[in-house]
Specification:
single chain, mainly beta, 27-stranded antiparallel beta sheet, five-stranded mixed beta sheet, 38 strands, 7% helix, 64% strand
Length: 680
């Protein structure tokens, strides 16, 4: 027995030695293949009715250089001729790092366009934003990376060339730095803009039983030098920031040839158009936030309208806006509950003037005062069985020289999941939408002898209600059912006067606008070579008015949006990626008008090179076949109008980017921590 055991042990040792020799020989010849555990980073997370999207991961191989362009790749977001829209939301606000802002949308777009995409950390989509953000309705919160003392000075320089009908050039520099408790952020961009657009209109105009076909072919050319500046300094929980934009050498020229002659309409800036915003905020250690900001806007331009070289009109317009904004928010935590309350106040003085140099006509010169105040209470909680929510109610007061009203604004955002692989979200909110300052003055702008744009002092703000039910599967696939309703909805529309051959563009309140639909977001990937995201939105819309210049309409239509964004990587080692994006939209309506179907194909290539890939070259071709040009038709109650646009979206963009310090944190000292940590 002992001999058998000894023999077995000897044989076992021999086999072990032979195996070890074979293994050593194998190791000598080649290394073991790595054991790879494949995992997928979640693209979408949800809590308290908020979708947190890992946008940097989604666009990492896209030829995207700035934050504004990156937003178009968010689930449900559509970039419509440069405007960011969210399917399933009646209106949309953009904020940065959760900080309230009163910046006009166009100025905010300019700031995001000048912000490098490498600053992006994540994005939060809120169909119903809590009142502490002071931005009712749907909100996209853009979360940027904050510098740390270990990072040192980081930055990015970019030079961009954009070719549409004309060429546009821009350059920009962004830098961040932190030392001890101080952080600094600076950004500047300079752009030489030169844009072109063309539209043809056909107006089959009926007056007293007589019809006249009025056709017009108008080309519009805009030129300016744009300076965009952002500067911020923070000390612990206190932050002071400045955002500004100055447009100089401003000139807008339109040339139209049609039934009533050959017109030249020129707008020139008498001085630079400027926007300045200063913001200060403080987050107290006892969960209180206070802030204030001041905004100043100035514009002064002159219009010269001529027909076949003969002067028809010369006018001067001027607008000066001073706006003040204050807010305070307080939160208290009790166990798993958070209770909050706060107040907000905004006052604006809009001093506007319109005068006619030739011919002698009456204009206006007045000051519009506006006050908006609100108070709110809110609650937020999370439960272990999977439910989290935030809810609030706000009372808002609005007053200006023409109207005064109160409004109650409810808000609810809830998330439920038994497992992170299956998430449900419910959102509901309402929001009051206010008209532009200029429209309330009732001024008149002339396009030519036939067309004019009228202001409307009687224009009322409208209330937009929205509700969404979303389902998120495996933290990447999303489907959203939504219902939108806007009471007394307003939009600018053309109207063929029944008293004279005049085409009037004016913003009017309708009875309502309603839209219901389903949106589906499906990303997929094939062997890390091809990744794509498919988006489908099917909706039914209705807009109704019983008194549109004495007429009535009830426009209903089914609509669809379908898009696929593709990224192709030839190799994980090759720093080159190709993107091809396709989209199709049909069934859009605006008042009594319907738009023709639109489709487009975009393509781009991204190449990273240099030490640690500090350099990047991006080429992007948008609307390659120049097919995304809207064609709107209105045909009801004697109104017969068509507008066809050209060259709306086609452009070719080339950008060179240089990042110093990698725009990434510096490496800390090499410390061996391989034996420490609980692991994941």
């Amino acid at each position: 027995m002992k001999r058998i055991i000894f023999t077995l042990l000897t044989a076992g040792m021999a086999l072990s030695l032979m195996a070890q020799n074979e293994i050593n020989d194998t190791i000598a010849g080649k290394r073991f293949d790595e054991v790879v555990v494949k995992g997928e980073k979640p693209q979408i997370k949800g809590q308290h009715g908020v979708m947190v999207v890992d946008l940097p991961h989604i666009i990492k191989d896209k030829p995207v250089t700035n934050v504004l362009d990156a937003l178009s790749y968010l689930p449900g977001v559509v970039s419509n001729n440069g405007m960011i829209e969210l399917n399933g939301a009646s209106s949309l606000s953009l904020i940065i790092n959760g900080e309230p802002t009163t910046m006009p949308l166009q100025n905010l777009y300019q700031l995001l366009y000048a912000t490098p995409v490498d600053r992006l950390k994540s994005v939060e989509i809120m169909y119903s934003a809590p009142p502490k953000y002071h931005a009712a309705g749907a909100v996209i919160n853009i979360v940027l990376k904050e510098p740390r003392p270990l990072d040192g000075l980081m930055g990015q320089a970019v030079v961009e060339y954009n070719q549409t009908h004309y060429a546009t050039y821009s350059t920009g520099l962004n830098a961040t730095y932190a030392i001890k408790d101080w952080t600094f952020d600076l950004g500047y961009s300079l752009a030489r803009n030169h844009s072109y657009s063309r539209q043809q209109t056909y107006s089959n105009h009926l007056v007293n039983g007589e019809r006249l076909m009025v056709d017009d072919d108008m080309r519009q050319i805009t030129e300016n030098m744009s300076h965009t500046i952002h500067a911020a300094i923070s000390l612990r929980k206190m932050k002071l920031s400045y955002n500004g934009q100055i447009k100089s050498a401003l000139k807008n020229r339109s040339i139209s040839i049609g039934t009533f002659g050959s017109y030249s309409n020129i707008y020139k800036g008498q001085s630079p158009t400027s926007y300045h915003n200063i913001n200060i905020s403080y987050d107290a250690p006892f969960n209180m936030s206070v802030g204030a900001d001041y905004t100043h806007y100035f514009e002064n331009r002159i219009q010269n309208l001529s027909n076949a070289g003969e002067e028809q009109l010369c006018s001067d317009t001027r607008q000066v806006i001073n706006r003040y904004h204050l807010y305070i928010d307080q939160e208290h935590n009790f166990g798993g509950w958070t209770f909050g309350y706060g107040a907000e106040y905004q006052h604006a003085d809009d001093k506007s003037r319109q005068s006619y140099i030739f011919p002698a006509r009456s204009g206006f010169d007045n000051t519009l005062h506006e006050d908006v105040g609100s108070v709110y209470v809110s609650s937020q909680a999370s439960f272990q069985w999977g439910l989290s929510f935030n809810a609030s109610i706000a009372a808002e007061y609005f007053h200006n020289g023409y109207q005064c009203n109160w409004n109650m604004i409810p808000q609810l955002g809830a998330t439920y999941f038994s497992t992170p692989k299956s998430i449900f979200q419910l959102n509901f909110t309402s929001r009051r939408i206010y008209p532009s300052y200029w429209e309330l003055h009732g001024g008149t702008s002339y396009v030519n002898d036939y067309s004019m744009i009228l202001g409307n002092p009687e224009l009322q703000p409208y209330i937009a209600y929205s509700g969404q039910l979303s389902y998120i599967l495996h933290q990447k696939y999303a489907a959203t059912l939504y219902l939108l309703y806007s009471d007394s909805y307003s939009v600018q529309l053309p109207y063929q006067s029944t008293d004279d051959f005049k085409l009037i563009f004016q913003t009017l309140n309708m009875d309502f606008s309603r839209s219901a639909g389903l949106q589906i977001h499906v990303p997929f990937e094939v062997e890390h070579i091809w990744s794509a995201t498919a988006t489908l939105n099917i909706s039914h819309s209705q807009q109704k008015s019983k008194n549109f210049h004495g007429l009535s309409f009830d426009n209903k239509h089914w609509g669809v949006y379908a898009g696929v964004a593709n990224t192709i990587r030839l190799s994980s080692e090759l720093p080159v990626s190709l993107s091809i994006d396709c989209s199709y939209i049909a069934g859009q309506i605006q008042g009594p008008g319907c738009f023709s179907p639109l489709w487009k194909i975009d393509a781009g290539i991204k190449w990273q090179f240099g030490t640690k890939r500090c350099c990047e070259l991006d080429f992007k071709a948008n609307d390659i076949f120049n097919t995304c040009n809207p064609d709107m038709k209105i045909n009801f109650a004697g109104q017969d109008y068509r507008m066809k646009a050209y060259d709306m979206n086609q452009n070719f963009k080339l950008a060179f980017i240089y990042r110093f310090n990698g725009f990434k944190p510096k490496k800390e000292a090499d410390i061996d921590i391989s034996r420490f940590g609980a692991g994941q």
